[in-house]
Write a structure and sequence with these properties.
The complex is a heterodimer of chains A (710) and B (309). Chain A is mainly beta. Chain A has a single domain, classed as TonB-dependent receptor, beta-barrel domain (Maltoporin, Chain A, Beta Barrel). Chain A contains five helices and 44 strands. In chain A, helix 1 packs antiparallel against helix 2. Chain A is globular and about 70 Å long.
């Protein structure tokens, strides 16, 4: 970790998307704040006008031990009623996350546990695709290598993450669930530095260097080892040829330039690639009707993000981000194929003007343009609430689309008021045009916070959110081109209590309705070409209610940690149905207890224990022998009327740091599922579905790594 | 890539399942349902039969039926159109035409016969009428043929298996009429000599011995045909090797032109059960060959297990 992290963490607050900056602070202010943190070792409530609860541990200048770099976790800017932020230094030490920036979000209140290896972000009863993941406010197509193995951005390229489980501000849109925004690294090295990280998954390198007094550059790269070990592990008589062993790599280039206190320029170029190609000698190992034994995947993307922040005085601030990139997904398994080649451009501009004391105006635009070529040979995909079915290759839809161009502009405005001492109200509205749907939406949102005492704050918010259906759902061949956007309304009310400077308790009750959900239907529609199945309509409905409790202990007295507990009920009502059913990822109880203790001799020990109610599942009540495919097709009972068993797991992490004159060496072991609980990830059946076993969870796994920092 | 795909890829090859393999017969099983001819013309009478195995040799009863529109697999393929409605649709097209339709119930013999006996144009018109029925459009594709579904319920005193097979009455069969594959023999090799085996169980093999299995299928079993888009193609073959004891190296083999060689589809290896677990009766082996256009063939053989064959 950079020795200047204390300053950087706060400078980064000024450097990117909406809501991140300290209100009215200039880059110069930030530097001063950073210096202050280094001197006082503890910062709580950096600026009364800007931060509800910001806590930090000792800055690096105060100690020679970089493990005591700034640790921030908690609600930061008060314009968001519900927001959790965590900085890179804290991410690295979270047990069970193996230093992965995005895996840490799984420990926050409001986040359901995703299935092993899926990497899904399931927030307050919304589906994985209902939440958006951004880097500096710019959309990225996937957050993980191989859909959940490792984040596409290594920790070295990240300053921190901001997580909004709901009721996020008008600057964010096109999501009906939550938002996770990754803040890229803001550089300010005084000399060349960096790190080399070797662990079970991959090796990475990150080097940063100053370019004169006002700028800095950094490059980073990472590559996995999987392909080198797979050949040794795979038996020779498997009937499987590994043409291209699975591998991933990513790369990052960062540049920052700040010629004066008013101007800050940034550039970020990063990308990711996953590749694998396997060949089954017998095609029927994949599908009984198959004619191809190939399983291939080549998925990648890159983004270029240019940023410019203009802060002429403490009353005005403008942030501009211009991004372009390309997403490439080429995937095939047997006779199924998917090929998407998409170019993307995005412009995001946010300005904020403090009109007078207690009154500020904000406005901005958020515009995306995509141009896509796509081809598919797929059956209609399984949707939420639908149990898995065998693939019948006779039902494949073969579709090719060229030059699909969609422009989706959005504009937003908000008013920040402090009508009473301690009362902050943010009211805004966002207008979106969804180019693919030809539909316009208007989302009013309002949130309020009221500091009842120095220790106690009440908060409430209500807002409307819209998002597009999936691409296939509005495609003429796969679905219904006349679908409308999905609409969600978020309600939350809660309170924050800080009985001590380093202890914060947050209790939030939330309720969410999901209207116009896309739902499968057997209805047909008359067209000029005759009768056409409607396939989907907007008659689905959902409701989610829950309570989140977070108790957080900031880093002090050698300890930090938190307890996050969510109790919730998420339900859906499908098109044509009168009754509700549990949502696929409805997890009644989600409890995370997490802590890290700093020991003598450069040692640091941490643990995490999780308990999660098992996911709903649809029972299988029989099976039919399909003589066309020579396999049994399961017959399902009432949707999601059963559950798999609960999940609980203990993870432990031990770090040992050696500090030398010019560099540090950190060795760590991150042991997951230390009591080897056989957690049920899913249900496996025999060929005719008369027998099953629950299982598939991770056994005890120890991840060992070495990180050398200069 | 979704992790389950990787898991499938590796799991299919390297992992062991806690369950008996698909090709091990331990209970009442329907191993295949055959239609002759497999892709009939509108005037053909189709003979239906099935390969049904009860390991305990219990008496088996059959209940055959058909339905033009089935619901989803996840609901157990319910018939979505009752017989009276179908007859009414045909009556609307051709007065008195309802009598042309066979009853949905095709009887309870081991074999059944199904014939529609109507002109291709009328069959196509009827198919389009079905597609226009509310709720039916998703299940009916009338472009090249009239697809209907044969349902078979097989039962013993304690078990029941329901099966479904799609039967496509082609409007214009032309010269590419499909035929069921020819499967001449099932062989087992002892000392490099392939011996045809049959139900007599005359061949003796050793407990725990490993034997090469083969089937005698002519290359013409994978017929050439013209696809809907005009391109020429060759049928794929799927071969499933069932056993009631011991185990095979592969549950299935296959032929796919340019991908999986024909010869590979015809070979497998069977390891006979060891004496401690072997049944007191002969070991039975069944092989079913499916072509990719609905054709089916099967063969059965048994061998006697002995300490010194």
């Amino acid at each position: 970790m950079s020795r200047h992290f204390g300053a950087l963490a706060l400078v980064s607050l000024l450097g990117s998307a909406e809501g991140r900056a300290e209100q009215g602070a200039s880059p110069a202010d930030a530097t001063r704040i950073g210096a202050a943190s280094a001197q006082t070792n503890l910062v709580t409530g950096v600026d009364d006008a800007t931060s509800a609860a910001l806590s930090a541990t000792a800055g690096p200048e105060s100690t020679s031990d970089p493990s005591l770099d700034v640790v921030i976790i908690g609600e930061r800017p008060r314009e968001q009623a519900s927001r959790t932020s965590i900085e890179a230094a804290a991410i690295e030490k979270v047990p069970g996350a193996a230093g992965d920036p995005l895996a840490v979000a799984q420990n926050f209140a409001g986040v359901a546990r995703s299935s092993l290896g899926s990497g899904d972000l399931i927030v307050r009863g919304s589906g994985p695709a209902d939440s958006q993941i951004f880097v500096d406010g710019i959309q990225i197509p996937t957050a993980y290598h191989f859909q959940g193995l490792r984040s596409v951005l290594p920790l070295g390229a990240v300053d921190g993450i901001d997580f909004f489980p709901g009721n996020f501000g008008v600057a964010f849109g096109r999501a009906s669930g939550g938002v996770l925004d990754v803040r890229s690294k803001t550089l300010a090295p005084e000399r060349i530095g960096g790190y080399v990280d070797l662990n079970l998954y991959d090796a990475s390198l990150f080097v940063a260097a100053p370019t004169g007094e006002h700028g800095a550059v950094a490059i980073g790269a990472r590559r996995s080892y999987i392909d080198t070990v797979l050949g040794a592990l795979l038996p020779s008589d498997t009937g499987l040829s590994v043409v291209t062993a699975p591998s991933y790599y990513d790369y990052q280039m960062i540049g920052n330039y700040q010629p004066g206190p008013e101007h800050a320029v940034s550039a970020l170029f990063f990308g990711s690639h996953d590749g694998v190609k396997l060949l089954f000698k017998n095609p029927t190992d994949l599908f009984t009707q198959g004619s191809s034994g190939q399983l291939a995947n080549a998925t990648g993307f890159y983004r270029t993000i240019l940023g410019y922040t203009y802060v002429p005085d403490e009353r005005f601030k403008n942030e501009l981000h211009v991004a372009s990139g390309r997403d490439r997904i080429k995937f095939s398994i047997g006779d199924l194929a998917l090929d998407i080649d998409s170019y993307l451009a995005q412009v995001r501009d946010t300005l904020r003007l403090e009109v007078s004391h207690g009154v500020a105006l904000g406005a901005g635009v958020d515009s995306t343009f995509t141009k896509t070529d796509a081809s598919f040979a797929l059956p209609r995909p399984q949707k939420e609430g639908e149990p898995p079915a065998n693939t019948n290759l006779d039902d494949l839809l073969v579709v090719s689309r060229k030059g699909l161009g969609f422009w989706s502009p959005a504009a937003f405005a908000q008013l920040e008021l402090e009508p009473l001492e301690g009362l902050d109200i943010v009211a805004g509205v966002r207008a979106d045009y969804f180019g693919r749907l030809g539909a316009m939406t208007l989302d009013p949102r309002v949130s309020a916070r009221y500091s009842l005492t120095h220790e106690l704050t009440a908060k409430a918010a209500i807002g409307r959110f819209h998002q597009e259906p999936f691409f296939d759902e509005t495609d003429a061949a796969f679905g219904n081109p006349d679908l409308k956007p999905i609409r969600a309304t978020h309600y939350m009310v809660g309170g924050e209590w800080s009985p001590k400077e380093f202890v914060h308790i947050d209790v939030t009750a939330f309720y969410k309705t999901l209207e116009d959900l896309v739902s499968r239907t057997d209805a047909v529609v008359m067209t000029q070409d005759g009768v056409r199945p409607l396939v989907y309509d907007n008659h689905g409905y959902g409701r989610v209610v829950g309570l989140e409790v977070t108790s957080r202990h900031d880093f002090t007295r050698n300890f930090y940690g938190w307890i996050a507990y969510t109790v919730s009920r998420a339900e859906r009502r499908d098109s044509g149905q009168q009754t509700f059913r549990p949502f696929d990822y409805d997890q009644t109880h989600v409890l995370t207890v997490l802590g890290t203790y700093k020991l003598p001799f450069g040692l640091e020990a941490g643990g995490r224990w999780r308990y999660v109610t098992g996911n709903p599942t649809t029972p299988i009540v029989g099976a039919t022998y399909n003589a066309d495919t020579d396999q049994y097709d399961p017959i399902y009972g009432r949707t999601n009327s059963a559950r798999i068993g609960p999940f609980h797991q203990l993870d432990l992490r031990l770090d040992k740091r050696w500090t030398f004159a010019l560099w540090q060496l950190n060795a760590y072991v991150d042991a997951q599922n230390v009591y080897n609980r056989k957690n049920p990830e899913g249900r496996t059946f025999n060929y005719n579905y008369t027998q099953h076993v629950d299982g598939g969870g991770l056994p005890i796994v120890a991840i060992i790594g070495l990180k050398a920092e200069i | 890539m979704k992790p389950w795909i990787m898991a499938t890829a590796l799991g299919a090859s390297a992992c062991t399942s806690p369950f008996s393999p698909y090709n091990t017969i331990e209970s009442l099983r329907v191993l295949a349902v055959r239609a002759t001819p497999p892709t009939p013309s509108p005037h053909d009478a189709v003979v239906l039969d099935a390969l049904v195995v009860s390991p305990d040799h219990e008496p088996i009863t059959y209940a055959w039926s058909w339905c033009p529109v089935l619901g989803n697999a996840s609901a157990g393929y319910p018939c979505l159109l009752d017989e009276a409605t179908l007859r009414a649709l045909l009556e609307a097209r051709v007065p008195g035409g309802g009598a042309m339709l066979p009853a949905y119930d095709l009887g309870s013999e081991a074999t059944a016969t199904l014939g529609l006996s109507m002109p291709a144009a009328l069959l196509e018109a009827l198919c389009l009428d079905l597609a226009a029925e509310r709720g039916a459009a998703r299940q009916v594709d009338c472009r090249l043929d009239f697809p209907l579904h044969v349902l078979l319920t097989t039962s013993t005193a304690t078990e029941q298996v329901r099966s479904v097979k799609t039967l496509r009455f082609e409007y214009d069969v032309g010269t590419a009429a499909n035929e069921n594959p020819v499967l001449r023999a099932l062989t087992l090799s002892t000392s490099d000599t392939a011996v045809a085996i049959d139900e007599s169980a005359a061949l003796h093999v050793a407990f725990g011995g490993e034997y090469a299995l083969g089937i005698d299928v002519p290359e013409t079993a994978a017929q050439s045909f013209t696809r809907a888009d005009g391109t020429l193609a060759r049928e794929r073959l799927l071969v499933t090797w069932f056993v009631d004891s011991g185990e095979t190296t592969k549950a299935r083999t296959s032929y796919s032109e340019g991908v999986a060689p024909f010869a590979d589809a015809l070979q497998n290896t069977w390891t006979a059960p060891i004496a401690e677990v072997a049944p007191s009766k002969p070991s039975s082996l069944w092989v079913v060959v499916h072509d990719s256009r609905g054709g089916v063939a099967w063969a059965f053989g048994a061998v006697t297990l002995a300490v010194q064959p």
